[in-house]
Design brief:
By secondary structure, the protein is of the alpha/beta class. 28% of the residues lie in helices and 19% in strands. It contains 14 helices and 20 strands. It has an eight-stranded parallel β-barrel with strand order 1-2-3-6-9-10-11-12. It starts with a strand and ends with a strand. The structure holds modified acarbose pentasaccharide.
Length: 480
């Protein structure tokens, strides 16, 4: 399965208001099919005062800028007819301050007050979040509420069983609308405040119990639901959640790939594989597949991070030749740019995808100007789709390779040799086997049978049995 993270507002506009919508996405399903995508992770589409949609004001609604339930129905039917799954991002950890539950709490309705966490005498209202030093207690109407992600988004209190039931209903509702699964936002944050000690503290055991219950509930409704979790943390913490979901985003490994390319260090990549893809090194079946990615909407885009198209190609080559599920953040297939100064201002990595080299045209979204992707610089779909040497053509070739060798998704890894300059691994699954060589620097000579089934990525020369790999290239020899 190849997944695509899609931000609707910046995708395709179906009603000429400059904002991407459900109708627009339906029009462009063929673009995704042509790219080779099987599954779309759709960022939140519910009503929200925020452009990013992560502060929801009504869990069972669609932001009217994006369309209505009929549009959703048409989109999901077309997607399913064309063989594309659509997974919805649901942030359930918090709501918007505009959500009815919070408004009723502020009006003093006790039932709703218990949906949230309020400061008491023991609370240190100056306690700061452990990343970004942001405040977590926010003053409103002479009291303080807990909101880890800022004053616009009070956290729900999952110690209250009624809240748990309400959230179950939310999952049932969207499955009923035809979504194929969920991306579980902020999965480690459901229980991250200890209400006995009154201080911030991750309670992973309680989170795991909560998600077990939700997963069971979701699978009872759709036993094939795709459930993807977001636990952004160190390898030790990510591991705690392994075995719980179908797919878990592998944050540590996303840094590993980028750092190995930045520092031109093959040996580092090998060590990081052993650490962060450990379930692919042992014989036991993999329960939670590694959701492999290079960037997402909370991060600086790949080109802006690595600074050269050669490095971007190399990082993509690594992503598509390893087991797990590869995810592409929209626009990365065009090597779009975007630099985040701070994770709280994600609009810098969420610019409109450019359909036309001119930057304007039918369906082009214009809600935000092109700050990082100036028009006329070859970053448009129009410029790249007919150029066989474009980055888009390169990504399509990689995806096609992956689809022809879909077994790699479940392959086991064995490291055959590593140095700072290059790394060789064996991938195997049932009767399939491949040798993959990642050449980071200098030239590398490899001998292979003239008729062997080989796939090269990036720069190489072949002279009979000898293949000479240039720096930052990958060679795959499929053995069976
Ligand atoms: C999700 C969404 C994001 C969204 C929210 C809130 C959650 O993708 O768009 O914000 O609905 C934390 C959370 C994530 C969260 C990000 C934005 N992402 O855990 O769930 O923030 C450290 C912390 C992580 C933290 C990360 C952020 O540990 O918890 O993610 O920093 O940079 C090593 C360490 C690792 C460390 C990293 C990075 O890998 O091992 O621990 O991670 O380095 O330093 C949206 C908006 C926000 C808005 C919110 C309401 O984007 O602006 O405020 O909604």
């Amino acid at each position: 399965m190849i997944c695509y993270e899609l931000y609707l507002r910046s995708f395709f506009d179906g009603n000429a208001d400059g904002i991407g919508d459900l109708d627009g996405l339906e029009c462009k399903l063929d673009y995704l099919i042509d790219l080779g995508i099987d599954c779309v992770w759709l960022l939140p589409i519910m009503s929200s005062p925020a452009f990013h949609g992560y502060t929801i004001s009504d869990f069972k609604s669609i932001n009217s800028l994006y369309g209505d339930f009929d549009d959703l129905d048409k989109l999901l039917s077309s997607a399913h007819r064309k063989g594309i799954k659509i997974v919805l991002d649901i942030p359930v950890n918090h709501v918007s301050v505009c959500h009815e539950w919070f408004i009723r709490a502020l009006q003093g309705e006790k039932e709703y007050e218990e949906f949230f966490t309020w400061a008491d005498k023991k609370t240190d209202i100056n306690e700061l979040r452990h990343w970004g030093n942001a405040r977590i207690w926010h003053n409103i109407d002479k009291r303080y509420f807990y909101g880890l992600f800022g004053p616009g988004s009070p956290d729900l209190n999952f110690e209250n069983p009624l809240v748990v039931e309400k959230i179950k209903e939310v999952f049932s509702f969207w499955l009923g609308k035809g979504f194929d699964g969920f991306r579980l936002d902020a999965a480690k944050h459901i229980f991250d405040y200890n209400t006995v000690k009154m201080r911030f503290e991750y309670q992973h055991d309680k989170n795991i119990a909560f998600w077990k219950e939700m997963r069971k509930h979701i699978l009872q409704i759709n036993k094939e639901a795709v459930i993807i979790s977001e636990v952004w943390d160190s390898p030790e913490i990510v591991k705690k959640y392994e075995g719980l979901f179908e797919i878990g985003f592998n944050f540590p490994f996303s840094y590993s790939i980028k750092d190995s390319v930045k520092h031109t260090d093959a040996s580092f990549l090998a060590d990081e594989m052993e650490k962060n893809l450990s379930s692919y090194f042992i014989d036991d079946p993999v329960v939670t597949k590694s959701g492999n990615f290079l960037t997402n909407h909370d991060m600086t885009r790949l080109y802006s991070e690595l600074g050269s198209i050669k490095d971007v190609r190399f990082a993509f080559s690594i992503l598509f030749t390893l087991p797990g599920i590869p995810f592409i953040y929209y626009g990365e297939e065009l090597a779009m740019q975007g630099k985040l100064k701070n994770v709280d201002f994600t609009e810098d990595s969420e610019e409109p995808i450019q359909w036309y080299e001119l930057g304007y045209g039918y369906g082009q979204t214009e809600w935000k100007g092109f700050k990082f992707n100036p028009v006329g610089t070859g970053r448009s779909v129009q410029a790249q789709s007919h150029d066989k040497n474009s980055f888009l053509s390169f990504v399509k070739k990689l995806i096609l390779f992956r689809k022809e060798n879909i077994w790699i998704e479940n392959a086991k890894i064995q490291i055959l040799g590593k140095s700072k300059k290059s790394l060789s691994i064996k991938l195997s699954y049932q009767d399939k086997e491949a040798l993959v060589i990642y050449n980071f620097s200098s030239l590398k000579r490899v001998l292979c049978e003239e008729n062997s089934n080989i796939f090269y990525i990036n720069n190489f020369q072949r002279k009979g049995k000898e293949v000479i790999l240039g720096p930052k290239s990958v060679l795959v020899i499929i053995r069976k």
